[in-house]
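cron nightly-structures :: item 1 of 1
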Amino acid sequence: MTAADLKLDAVDEFVDLEESLDLQALVGEVGTEPVRPAMQPYEDDRLAEVRNSARRFAREYVLPRATAIDAEGDNSTESYPWDLVELMQAEGYFGMCLPTEAGGDGRPVVEMLVVLEELARVDVTTARIAGDFNGVVGNCLLNSGTPDQVQRYLPGILAGRKPCICITEPSSGSSLRDMQTTLSRSAGGWVLNGRKRPISGVGTGDVYLVLARVDPNSVPSGGFAALLVDSEHEGVAAGKKWHMTGTHGMPEYDLELSEVPIRDGDIVGEVGAGLSVVMSSYNMQRLVAASIGLGIGAGAFGMAVRYANLRKQGDVRIGDYQGTRWNFADVHTRIVSARAMLHIAARNDRPTRHDAAVAKLMCVEASVAAADYALQVFGWRGYSKHYPLERYLRDARMFTIGGGTVEVLRDIVGKSVLDLPDSSL
């Protein structure tokens, strides 16, 4: 055999490999799982059924759109996948854990987390949308809202009327003492002024749950207020658009609030007690973010497993090298440990602040590690936009910041362990 023949064989093998690495093959068939069911003893038959059903939905409807949502999306309202919103609503993915008497499905929290994880395996935007319909706003309404507020907003949310949580500001994320958005008394009731930045879903959201500081000149005790604000309300507008590193299908804009008239009936809970209103549901929101982050990492890791069993260096599959196996073992251990903690936090359907923080911290850091290692396994292919690994890494990184940075989460856990007071979000 000549050198030319050897070169031709190498090219043929390369072409064959590229042809076998389509996105469908890398994601895997429904029911296949690099993390074997035997390694997940905490998942019973019912949860396995939920996982496979969600995986089937994600593979059939979401996967064909995933690459385009990222490549064509620019965090604007034009890139929002409205068709997938309708499909998820029809599938029953909104209000999964809300009680049946309120119009929800009354499912255990862990089932909702499994659905979100499976959606995130193929597309983070779709998972985040589903998460919004199972997160803070609906739970705040049930925990602290009046019957009128529940009737006004909850049926619309369950029918696909998107809610948005609006806390972050240009100078205030988890540090609430720097919040500038203010609720003040006016002749006709209240008025809201400020800017929230950046807010996911502005322009597609129908109702905003806004956390604002109460003007101490209006209410001497001050504090915060949680407010329900319709997107079409006077004085409400989308501001600057932000083009993020990842999650390109989710619109990201400033929310401008200028002399927005607020009625007493728009205030959730008591004036001054808004922080406790939001916090009553924020532990659940952290589990939502944790499950989506975990799904990103698990999806990337599953691709790396399949690739390692296909890719050969010479005549040896790269998965047959001991060093590779050890690295896979490390990432696998982080993923299954994070998933176990996530499911522990969801027990009894009422996550504690400590458990939610630990679960999110473990899940999002495992996600980044898994996506980063998966890209490394793919080598130059992983670094190219022809494969989704770089997208997974970009998307995973977002969850170490949004919904509580890993630094804030560590502080929450540390204060809990040391029994210290904690006033952070």
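cron nightly-structures :: done
Residues 181 and 194 are 4 Å apart (CA to CA).
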